[in-house]
Amino acid sequence: MNIGIVGTGRMGTAIVRRLLDLGHDVQVWNRTAYKAHDAHEAGAKWTPILRDLVRDSDVVISFLYDNESVERVYLGANGLLTGRVEGRLFIDMSTVSPGPHAQIAVATAARGADFLECPVSGSIPAAQLGALVGFAGGEATVFTRAHPLLAQLCRRLEHVGPIGAGARMKLAANLLLAVFWQALGESLLLAGSPSMDTARVIDLLADSNIGAAILRMRATQIVAALNGQTSAPATFDVDAIRKDLRYMVQEAAERGNSLPLVTRALECFDRASSEGGGRADSATYPALWISQQVAPVEEPRGMNERQGLRPSSDSLRYADHGIPTHSEPV
């Protein structure tokens, strides 16, 4: 199958690799060409013009950063829908609000094309193994058409409702994740004791009734950050979480609801970003948040012990040990 991939960040590139491994012909587009280098090196064809990518593809999958990117790429003056789109299938896997998808669904239907939203949950390795979880929203007939391809990318694929339902489901999943990282920071601060090292605390929490799989999966990175060590490049950073949290608050407000935990978590993540931690990986956020609770250096002797975990406050200050950054969003 001829497949076009729009957006070659880390996840988009992982999907490219998966599709190439399965024998598909893949061409890619990214707003900044050099960020498509890895996808091109893996065997994908690079195209600089979106309408040309659509012309030469049976299916177009997009993986973009935010509402503005999705609207620009699909509906902009030089966007995906400016060329010959009749009969094509478009699938957007971006984590965005439902609003842009509703507009795109109307525009594609008017041009004789199909559109499905299917944001996914999972890691980069999961994407390369075809083990993502997909939240599909759209017409049942379009989901049926997309299912054989999406099943090659997802270990679990659910049609959760009409356009908008998939976007809301992904935001709901990320809500739990964002609040978890904030809660973990507070839990570690509360549980901290000078007689227990950080790795032991994390292991005990992971073995408790919370049973969060991500705590075991990311334990090494969490502990490294708590001990003031750098880690691998960010896969889901603080600024991306802030973006999602804002969409959650906005979507709830439009539906006449409020999200008090999300609102407070957003304030905490906003502070982390304003103090230089915007590009920090989410798994390192608990250490960043704890460092912000520690008193200034001139604190009385012994304050660190009362605050909690064994590492010194200086080792927890991200300004002292560069936090790795991720690629700029498409």
Attribute tags:
330 residues; alpha/beta; Rossmann fold; N-(1-d-carboxylethyl)-l-norvaline Dehydrogenase, domain 2; six-stranded parallel sheet; three-stranded mixed sheet; 15 helices; 9 strands; 49% helix; disordered C terminus
Q: In a few lines, what is going on in this structure?
A:
The chain is of the alpha/beta class. It has helices at 10-21, 37-42, 50-55, 67-75, 98-110, 124-129, 140-150, 165-191, 198-206, 213-217, 219-226, 238-254, 260-277, 285-293, 303-307; strands at residues 2-6, 25-29, 45-46, 59-62, 89-92, 114-117, 120-121, 132-137, 154-161. It folds into two domains: 2-163, Rossmann fold (3-Layer(aba) Sandwich), CATH 3.40.50; 168-320, N-(1-d-carboxylethyl)-l-norvaline Dehydrogenase, domain 2.
Secondary structure layout plus pairing:
Elements: E1 2-6, H1 10-21, E2 25-29, H2 37-42, E3 45-46, H3 50-55, E4 59-62, H4 67-75, E5 89-92, H5 98-110, E6 114-117, E7 120-121, H6 124-129, E8 132-137, H7 140-150, E9 154-161, H8 165-191, H9 198-206, H10 213-217, H11 219-226, H12 238-254, H13 260-277, H14 285-293, H15 303-307
Parallel strand pairs: 1-2, 1-4, 2-3, 4-5, 5-6, 8-9
Antiparallel strand pairs: 7-8
Report the total helices.
15
Q: In angstroms, what separates the terminal alpha carbons?
A: 25 Å
What is the fourth-level CATH superfamily of the largest domain?
NAD(P)-binding Rossmann-like Domain
Q: What is the mean predicted local confidence, pLDDT?
A: 88
Please estimate the helix content.
40-55%
> Based on CA inertia axes, which overall geometry fits?
globular
Poorly predicted segments: 297-330
Strand runs, count:
9
CATH names the topology of the largest domain as Rossmann fold
Looking at the overall shape, the CATH architecture of the largest domain is 3-Layer(aba) Sandwich
Q: In angstroms, what is the radius of gyration?
A: 21 Å
Order of helices and strands: EHEHEHEHEHEEHEHEHHHHHHHH
The biggest sheet, with number of strands, parallel, antiparallel or mixed sense and barrel status, is: 6 strands, parallel
User: What is the CATH first-level class name of the largest domain?
Assistant: Alpha Beta
Structural class comes to alpha/beta
* Number of structural units classed as domains: 2
